[in-house]
Design goal:
binds pyridoxal-5'-phosphate; Aspartate Aminotransferase, domain 2; alpha/beta; two-stranded antiparallel ribbon; 40% helix; Aspartate Aminotransferase, domain 1
Amino acid sequence: MPSATTDRYMKVDFYRHNLDDACIASLVGATKQIFISTGPKTQEFEAAFAVYLGVPHAVGTMSCTHSLYLAWRALKVGVGDEVIVPAMTFVATIEALMLTGAAPVFTDVDLRSGILDPAAVEEKITPRTKAICPVHLYGTMAPMDRFRAIADKHALLLVEDSAHCVEGRGPGFAPGALSDAAAFSFYATKNITCGEGGAVATRHAEVAHKLKLLRNHGINRTAIERFNDKVSGYDVEESGFKSNMYDLQAALLIPQLAKIDVNYARRAAIVQSYNDAFKDAGLILPYVPPGHKSALHLYTVRLPDEQKRDKFMVALTAQGVGCTVNYRPLSSLTFFHTQLGMRDEDYPHATAIGATTVSLPLYPNLTDDEVAYVIDSVRKTARNVL
Ligand SMILES: Cc1ncc(COP(=O)(O)O)c(C=O)c1O
């Protein structure tokens, strides 16, 4: 288990994973099966994940990037289609879409939550619009009920980027419940992780079927089906990709899903301590709309301007507290302004968030002493910088 305090530079790492003995035992057990690729463990995880979300189907993949790409392909979004996406997200949301040939239509976000703004989305709809892709930023769900109404009104598809949001819920809805597909990440820093991994949840049996085909080269009989049926033949129904979750990933995820509420409770306690300690520190604290349960993936605070934010980060880092920016706005990144013509001034809220935001350590195995150290350092630094 990596240590926060040995000979490392950071006193409190920005992130440390939480793979425990149960995960390691499960992984070792999986290595002793015949199937180490997609087999019974993947099926077990998919079934448990679907139950956890309360959505009928979950399909395991290599990553959220793969999940998003497969979801667009399964829904036949591609060349000639426009998809409305937020200007504040991680680059993967856009890359996966562009790989299909569809055009991203960047749209500004709500200033308090950083989440795609339904009113701004309606203004971007054209006859070529095929879909909307809300991102559940930091773990708080987008207003999916409002996006559902917009999608119904204009006959659009809805795909959720739920990379940050396994445990998050809106008032009466979970990721995957109101959309055509929701894509999840099990990357190294996510709330449940297998290093790299992902899944798609969907209400639609035909989309789940298509995803399973597409994640395996378009092959219509999986290796385990061929093994069980003692038949070696298969057909390729369409051009797919290689994106399948495999059993070693699933073996790491299954025990984490079983204790997801315990780890959530620990993060919630840390968030409560941070919120209490920072309420008079002059920082803008994370916003969770009424009626929502955030997945509490990232704890992001905002400072008044970019100069103060940068000073704050330098000072915190010097005290050994890991921190990072989630995210620099897409319009500030070279590819997006030189190749796609994005301009900061067209996305004032995303630009303002990107210039002022900083994420602090938040993970279940932060010790009480580390939480206290983060709190002291943040309060002291805020006093000096503000
Ligand atoms: C919002 C968002 N979407 C998509 C991804 C891509 O996830 P993955 O690394 O599993 O492909 C990430 C990764 O951090 C993300 O933050």
